[in-house]
Amino acid sequence: MTIKEIFDTMDYGPAPESAAEAMEWLDTQGRAFGHFIDGAFTAPGKGFDSRNPATGDTLATLTQATHADVDAAVAAARKAQPKWAALGGHGRARYIYAIARLLQKHARLFAVLETLDNGKPIRESRDIDIPLAQRHFYYHAGMAQLMESELPDREALGVCGQIIPWNFPLLMLAWKIAPAIAMGNSVVLKPAEYTSLTALLFADICRQAGLPAGVVNIVTGDGEVGEMITAADVDKVAFTGSTEVGRRIRQATAGQGKALTLELGGKSPYIVFDDADLDSAVEGLVDAIWFNGGQVCCAGSRLLVQESVAERFYTKLRARMDKLRIGDPLDKCIDVGAIVDPVQLDTITKMVDANAAGETYRSAAPLPANGCYYPPTLITGLSPSDRLMQEEIFGPVLVGTTFRTPTEAVSLANNTRYGLAASLWTENVNLALDVAPGLAAGVVWVNGTNMFDAAAGFGGVRESGFGREGGWEGLSAYTRPKLGWKKLEKIAPFSGDKGPEDPLDRTAKLYIGGKQARPDGGYSRNIHAKGGALLGQAPIANRKDIRNAVEAARGAAGWSKTTGHNRAQILYYMAENLQARADEFATRIDRLTGKRGGEKEVEACVSRLFTYAAWADKFDGQAHDVPVRAVALAMREPVGVIGALCDDAHPLLGLVSVMGPAMAMGNRLVAIASEPFPLAATDFYQVLETSDVPAGVVNILTGPHEELAPHLAGHMDVDAVWSFSSSDLAAVIERESAGNLKRSWVEGGRSRDWLSRDGEGRAFLEAATEVKNIWVPYGE
Amino acid sequence: MTTQSSSPAPFPRVADTASAPSAHGEARNPGMPLDLGWVRRVQANTSAIERRAATLPGRRSVKKEWQAAWLCRAISCIDLTTLSGDDTAERVRRLCAKARQPVRADLLGALGMEGLTVGAVCVYHDMVPTAVEALKGSGIPVAAVSTGFPAGLSPFHLRVAEIGESVAAGADEIDIVISRRHVLEGNWQALYDEMREFRDACGEAHVKAILATGELGTLRNVARASLVCMMAGADFIKTSTGKESVNATLPVSLTMIRAIRDYHDATGIRVGYKPAGGISKAKDSLTYLALIKEELGDAWLRPELFRFGASSLLGDIERQLEHHVTGRYSAAHRHAAG
To answer: How many interchain CB pairs under 8 A, A with B?
Structure first.
C-alpha cells in the first residue's frame, strides 16, 4: 500500500515486536531443556514439545519429570531450606531484591518469550505480566527484610511444592515463589506443560542472582508430575488452576499434614448499575473478559446489567467488541491474542456451541486464518440456570443477564459455587460500599477490574479456593506459628456401673437454633465420673442433628452483620454469667475429667471470653498501599458457618476457645463438644441463653467425633471446619472438605496447650475471617 | 456516559443551515432542544477514563509507511495557529505560507503526498483579512478565535458582534469560548442560550466551542458542557484556548469524544473534535488519531471532523517524516520555519 492509500484508509498496519532475542536465547539453550534442580539444569530427557499457539511452531522440547527427578528436586529443596531460613530476613532480602532487578533488566526478553509461548498479546506480557512479577519480588524482598521484626512468632513451613497454570506463567511463578522464599521456605515448582519457558528463563535468572542451590527448583511436565509433587515429602502444596484439580489435590493430600492453598476457578460477576459511566464500564469489560483472551481465573465473565440501561449497554458493548483487534500476539496493536492450545480452543468451542439459550453476538473483527483463535463473544438473555452462567468457560466469552434492584444484583452475583472476584460499576459511593461487602468474593473491584498488586491479597472463597497471595495476609500461607506442640493422645471416657451421684435428674440436650433439642436418633450415652459414678446422659447426635444445626446457623445470618462492639458486649456478658456460676462449672469439670483443674479452667474460659470480646472490635482490616490512585481495603469478613470439633481434654475451655473467635468475628458455630466429657458444654447453653446470644449463632452437639466429623466436613453449607479433637480426624476432615472446598483446620496428630497463649489469639482470628480486598480507585 | 435516545429536533432558527452539506463536506449540526434530563444523567468516571487513556498508547501502534501516512493525516488536521499579542501581518503571512507547504516539497514528493496542506489557519480577528488574502486559492479555511478569547468575559453583545465582524472579514470558522461560569454554576440553560446565539451569529461559518476544560473542574462537567454545546448547535467542540494552565489531555479528549459519540447515536449528527494546546510531539498526534479511530471511528479522521490546535506539532512531524524518507534522524533547521 502506498502512503497516499493508507492516508485515505487510515488502517493500522502491522507493528510486530521482534522475537529475535528470545529465539536467540532459546538457541543458546539448544532448544531442549531439562529441569532446574539444586542450582543446575539437568540434561534434557524424554518429554514433549512446547509450541507457539499463534503459529503452531515448536519453540523447544521440554522434559517430562520422572519420580526420580521430583525426588531429587525435593531432596535438594529439603537440604537447602534450613540454611536458607537461617540466613535471616536481610540475607534473603538481598537475593530476592537481586532477582527483582534481574527480572527488570531482562524484562523484554521475558515478555517476548511469554508471548511466544502462551499466545497472549505482547502488550499484556510487556505492560502487565512482567512488571507485576517484578513488583512481587521487590515487595517480598521487603517482607523477608521485615520477617523477624514483624512476624516474630512465625516460621517457615519448609519445602513448598507449587503447581501453576498456563495463563500467567511468569506472574503465577512470582506469586508462588516470592512469598515462599521470602519467608525462608524452599520450593519445587512445576510450570504448566504448555508454558514452561519463562520458568526456565527464571531458573537462569536465579543462577545469575547467585541464589543458593536448591532454594528454587523447577521441574517440568504434565499433570502427572503435579501429582508426584503433591505426593512428595513436601510441607506445603500451593496450587493455582482448575477447581476440579484443586479438589483432587485436597483429597490426595488429606491427612498428610501438608499445608495447602488453592487458587481455583471462578465465574466472576461484573455488575453494572444504572448510574454507572457506561462507556467506562464497557471499556472495563475489555480488561475483564478479553484480557488474556478470557483465560483468567478472575475474569469478569458473568455480566449483570441493571434492566433500565441494559439495551443501551449491550449496544455500546457490541460496538466496542467490533473494534477489538484479534491476531498475532507479537503485534503491538493487538487486543486479543491466541488461545493457549488447540485443546483449550476445542473446550471453549464445544461449551459455546452446546448453548442454545439467549442471544449470541460475535465480534465482527476478522480472525487470523491460522492459529488458535476464538472470536470475542457476548451471550445475553441467559438465566442463572443456563450452564454457561454457572460454569467457567475460560475463553473470550461473556455471558449475561439483567437485574432489577441492588438486592437482586447481589443475589444473582452470589448465585454461584465460585467466589473469586467481582466488579461493580456505579457512581454512587453508598451503593458501592453497600454492595461490595455483600458479594461472595475474595476481591472486589469498584469501577474497575483485574487490578492486581503484590501489596493486596488475591484469592477466593467458596470453590474458588482458599488462601491469599500478596499482602500481609498472603504470608500466613507460607509460615506457621511457633507453638509448643504435644503429641496427640486419644482421651477415653470413663466407664462405670454405679448409680447417679444426685438422684435429681438433670437432662442434657443438644442446643440447636437457640432451643434445647432431643437428638434425632433418640439415643443417649451414659457419662461416668472417674470413679464410675453416673454423672448423667449426653445425647448422641447424628447427621440429621448436624443438618439441623447447620440450618439454624445459616439462618442466623444477622449475627454477621452486627457490629464488633455489639458482639463484644455479648461476649463480655457471657463471661459475666459464667463467672457467676464459676464454682458450679469448676466442680462439673473436675467430676467429668477426674482432675482438679476445674477452677483454673473456668478462670481461663472467662479470660478467653474477655480476650475475644476485646478483639471483636479490634481485628481491623487494612488499607493497602497499592501503586495506583486507589484504596485497596483489606476487609476482614466472617467466614460464615464454622463447624468445630472441640478439644476433648478441656470440657469447657475447648468449647469456649472456638466459640470466642468464631463469635467475635461474626461467624455462626456448630460445635461438637468434648466427646468423653460433654456435660460442661451442655451446661453452658444455659449461659448462652442468659447472655442475649441470638438463636442459631452457637449450636452445641454431643456425640462421637469420628462419626460426626465426615458429615460436618462434608456438609455443603458449612464454610469452614476445625478439629481439635483428640481423635485424629485430619484425613477424614480434609478429604470430606473437598466437596465444597471449605477451609479446614486440623492439627495433624498434635495438640496444643489450651491453657497457654497458644490456645488463643491471632491464629484463631485469622481462621475465623476471610480477607476481602476491595479496590476503590478514585478521582474526580 | 449515560444518555438517552431522544430524537433530534432541529432548532427552528438554524434549521435553514441545518443538514445541507457545507463546503466542509459534513452535514452541520442543527442542534436540538436542551435536554436537561440527559445532561444531568451524564457520568464520567475519572479514574476509569484515565486508565483507558493511559493504556491506549500501549495498545495501538503504527509503524513504517503506516506511521508516515498517519503523520500526514495529522498534518492535514492541524489548525496552524498563532495567537500572540505580538502577531503582525508578516508573521501571519509566514504562517499561511507554511500552511500551504507544511512539509518540504522533496519530502512530500518522496512520500507521494504532494499537495498536502494543513487543515486551517487559526488567528485573532485582526489578522483574519491578512490570512484570507494569504491563503487565497489554497482552499485552506481561516479560523478566527472570537467572543472575547480567551477569557470570554467581555460584554456579551460585543462578543456576538465580534463573531459577525470576523465572518464579514472572511473567516470560515469561528472558535468561540464559552462562559465557564455557566458550567461551574450548573446553569446549563445559560450555556445553551449563549452557544445558540454564537451559533446563529456565525451564519455559514462553522462554529467550534472552546470549553476551556482546564477550568471546568471535573470530567463530569466537561462531559455535560460538551453535550450542552452540541445540543445548542456547535459544529466542533474544542478543549482549550491554549491559555489555561491545563490544556488538551487524553482523559479530557476521551470524555469529550464519548459525548460526541452519544450525540451521534442519538441524533445521527457528527460533531467534530479539536484538542488544542500542549500537543507538540508526533507520537502524541498518533495517539490522538488512534483514540479518535477507536472511540469514534474512521469517519472522524478527517479535517472536517477533527483538528489539532497546535503550533509546534508540525515541526516534530516534519522531522519524523524526513526520518521515514531518509532513515536518518532529522534536525529542526532542515525544515522551513512557519
So the answer is: 114
pTM of the model: 0.95
Which cell is A673 given?
A: 463438644
Nearest to A333 among B5, B61, B68 (CB): B61
Q: What is the DSSP pairing of strand A641-645 with strand A668-672?
A: parallel
B88-113 pLDDT per residue, tens: 999 999 999 999 999 999 999 999 99
* Residue of chain A nearest B71, judged by CA positions: A7
- Closest CB to B60 among A279, A333, A427: A333
- What positions of B carry a catalytic annotation? 175, 238, 274
Model pLDDT, residue B13: 38
Q: What's the confidence (pLDDT) of residue B311? A: 87
Report the alpha-carbon distance of residue A608 to residue B61 in Å, rounded. 63
| Interatomic CA distance for residues A584 and A564, integer angstroms | 30
Choose from B1, B60, B61 for mutation: most chain A CBs within 10 A: B61
Any chain A CB within 8 A of the CB of B114? no
Residue-wise DSSP of A60-84: EEEEPPPHHHHHHHHHHHHHHHHHH
Does B46 reach chain A within 8 Å, measured CB to CB? yes
The three-state secondary structure class of A117 is: helix
Average pLDDT for residues B191-199, to the nearest whole number?
98
User: A310 to chain B: nearest residue by CA?
Assistant: B2
Which residues of chain A, if any, have pLDDT below 50? none
pLDDT at site A590: 97
Contact yes or no for A13 and B258 at CB 8 A:
no
Contact at CB, B113 and A127, closer than 8 angstroms: no
Do residue B45 and residue A126 have CB atoms under 8 angstroms apart?
no
CB A220 within 8 A of CB A64: yes
Tell me, what's the pLDDT at A502? 78
Distance from chain centroid for Cα A357:
32
SS3 call for A435: helix
Residue B24's pLDDT band, with cuts at 50, 70 and 90, is: low
What tens digit of pLDDT does each residue of B124-148 get? 999 999 999 999 999 999 999 999 9
Q: Which residue has the higher pLDDT, A620 or B22?
A: A620
Which of B44, B48, B64 has its CB closest to that of A448? B48
Nearest to A69 by CA among A48, A41, A92, A95: A41
Q: Does B224 touch chain A (CB under 8 A)?
A: no
B chain contacts of residue A15, beta-carbon cutoff 8 Å: 61-63, 66
Q: What CA dihedral angle connects B242, B244, B246 and B247, to 10 degrees?
A: -30
Distance CA A700, CA A545 (A): 10
The residues, ordered by sequence, that sit 6+ positions from A767 with a Cβ below 8 Å of its Cβ are A639, A661, A720, A722, A743, A745
Q: Could you list the active site residues of A?
A: 263, 297
Give all strands of the β-sheet with A515-517 in edge-to-edge order.
A515-517, A510-512, A698-701, A668-672, A641-645, A720-723, A743-746
Determine, for residues B112 and A309 on separate chains, whether the beta-carbon distance falls below 8 Å.
no
Q: What integer pLDDT is reported at residue B16 of this predicted model?
A: 39
Q: Is the pLDDT of residue B9 over 50?
A: no
Please say if the pLDDT value at position B323 is more than 80: yes
CB contact under 8 A, B113 and A4: yes
Complex ipTM, two decimals? 0.94
Nearest to B62 among A12, A126, A279 (CB): A12
The alpha carbon dihedral of A127, A133, A139, A142 has a sign of negative
Domains in chain B, please, with CATH?
A: 14-337 (3.20.20.70)
Contact across the interface for B1 and A279, Cβ inside 8 Å = yes
Closest CA to A647 of A666, A671, A624, A617: A671
Whether residue B20 has pLDDT greater than 50? no
The C-alpha cell that represents B29 in the structure block: 449540526
Kindly state the DSSP code that residue A233 receives in the 8-state scheme: S
Which band of pLDDT confidence, cut at 50, 70 and 90, is reported for residue B270? very high
